[in-house]
Amino acid sequence: MLRVAVPNKGTLAGPASEMLAEAGYRQRHEQRDLTVLDAANEVEFFFLRPKDIAIYVGSGELDLGLTGRDLAGDSGAPVAEVLALGFGGSTFRYAAPVGERDWTVADLAGKRIATSYANLVSADLAAHGVSAEVIRLDGAVEISIQLGVADAIADVVGSGRTLRQHGLVAFGDPICRSEAVVVERAGSDHDRTKEQLLARLQGVVFGQQYVMLDYNCPRELLAEATRVTPGLGSPTMAPLADENWVAVRAMVPRKEAPAIMDRLAAVGAKAILSSDIRACRL
Ligand SMILES: Nc1ncnc2c1ncn2[C@@H]1O[C@H](COP(=O)(O)OP(=O)(O)OP(=O)(O)O)[C@@H](O)[C@H]1O
Ligand SMILES: O=P(O)(O)OC[C@H]1O[C@H](OP(=O)(O)OP(=O)(O)O)[C@H](O)[C@@H]1O
Ligand SMILES: [Mg+2]
pLDDT for 225-279, tens place per residue? Predict the structure, then answer.
């Protein structure tokens, strides 16, 4: 039985469970359930605090865990990333009050820095050769300067709204660029159930990052059109009843799809359709 940790709360919990459900795994119906057994797929899911997940996986008690790259890094647990999941994107950054001065990381020397990710911050300060006091807080870190316990902070930045609301500005290079990831204990083996879960999740991630384009193309413009949509391997082509036309089907990156559709229309393609891919195996 494969044992897999899933966030039970916070930003990553909803999307992580939805992705596992899309991959065909049973997920919990009740928010308070801490385990779910998916006997058909030989997997047991454990719903744990996101911060704790890498610790369980690093100790070898659980085989895989879905967590944030930043959380896994901060835990210091001996885990390795096996798959990036494409959601829960954030940066982890230093920030300080707007207008006080143009802060640099070197200016943090001798200062108090509040954070919920003390290990990441200590390691980054050491890498910069800066000696400062790290104040460990559990959350609402942005308010700590106002309340007088810190001079600067290091925190997760998503949209940047929370920093702006508190009159703070980020500075320095991001300490970490994070997203949700699957981790395993470093150096551990892959058995059939683990490989299957990773392949299914990979298929859902691909499905979310690509769309399927279908279009009809005059035969003489095929070479030009398929240069625009080379597909992952090679585009699928099928003859139409009108022998001067061909139907083409190719996967394209979701973010580029509108621009690719513009280019196909300019080439002379017609009936250009874009559709979602729920999951795929390449
Ligand atoms: N806007 C965001 N705010 C917080 N965490 C985010 C955000 N966007 C992505 N994340 C990621 O979510 C993970 C943090 O999840 P976690 O559940 O610990 O905190 P949370 O979502 O802030 O919930 P809570 O603070 O209520 O426990 C990190 O990997 C972080 O990078
Ligand atoms: O850049 P934004 O989109 O504004 O998001 C970032 C904020 O969201 C998180 O806080 P959360 O709401 O989880 O509260 P917490 O500080 O108690 O963890 C994070 O710690 C930042 O404070
Ligand atoms: Mg939080």
Answer: 999 999 988 889 999 999 999 999 999 999 999 999 999 999 999 999 999 999 9
Nearest residue (by CA) to ligand 2, atom 5, is 158
Which atom of ligand 2 sits closest to the CA of residue 157?
1
Count of other CB atoms within 10 angstroms of residue 125: 21
Q: Judge if 71 and 102 occupy the same domain.
A: no
How many distinct structural domains can be found in the chain?
A: 3
Q: What is the pLDDT of residues 217-229, one digit of tens each?
A: 999 999 999 999 9
Q: Provide the residue range defining the domain that includes 61.
A: 2-86+179-189
The ipTM value here is 0.94
Hey, which residues does 7 pair with through a beta bridge? 48
Q: Which residue puts its alpha carbon closest to atom 27 of ligand 1?
A: 10
Pocket of ligand 1 (CB under 6 A): 7, 9-12, 50-51, 68, 70-71, 88, 90, 139, 156, 158, 178
Nearest to 248 by CA among 231, 263, 267, 265: 231
